[in-house]
Amino acid sequence: MIDPTNKMVIHPKSKLVMIGDSITDCDRARPIGEGSFDALGTGYVSLVDGLIQSTCPAMRIRIINMGVSGNMVRDLKARWQGDVLDLKPDWLSIMIGINDVWRHFDTWLQTEWQVPLDEYERTLEGLISTTLPMLKGLVLMTPYFIEPNRADAMRVMMDRYGDVVRLLAQKYQVLLVDTQAAFDDVLKGLNSMALAEDRVHPNLIGHFVLARAFLQTIGYTW
Asked: Is 54 exposed, middle or buried, given 0-12, 13-18 or 19+ CB atoms closer than 10 A?
């Protein structure tokens, strides 16, 4: 029998906070996304928790969902103290950037609602550098766009923002979940409409793609 704990980098009795936008949120409980039933929402965070708790119950890993729909990196910075630092996590997972890119396309005239690439990098790095010394571990998750055509304008921009996350993960020597690569692999056999109607908000299949990529990164044995 395979022991799913044998390679997991998250140690027993850890508190893992997972923060992000609507992809993380998925109708999680307020004010703190933690507890029974749908408190963790209905997305990848809940799937990660379900697999860990069902196969590694003795590890007593505590997972908290602090995603907020519509958030950009500016919003994360504004709520960082209460939604991250005050929770005193051992491990932290961050996935942000989809809305930072999307606002360039769905609100193209409202430039003040858009987050330029340099601001995105500067703000995200500031959060990483100030928080990392307080953590036992950090996982960065790239933003993604479920579109196989890499010449698509939004896909091109999303890849640039994803590159920022990849470079920051390398710079600070933290774990990286390349969600775009995970979706690209699945798109070899499935149309994007089979994963998300708007190519952003995934269905259950898409959330399993995210959960699987996250669990593989932390060393969970499937």
From this structure: exposed
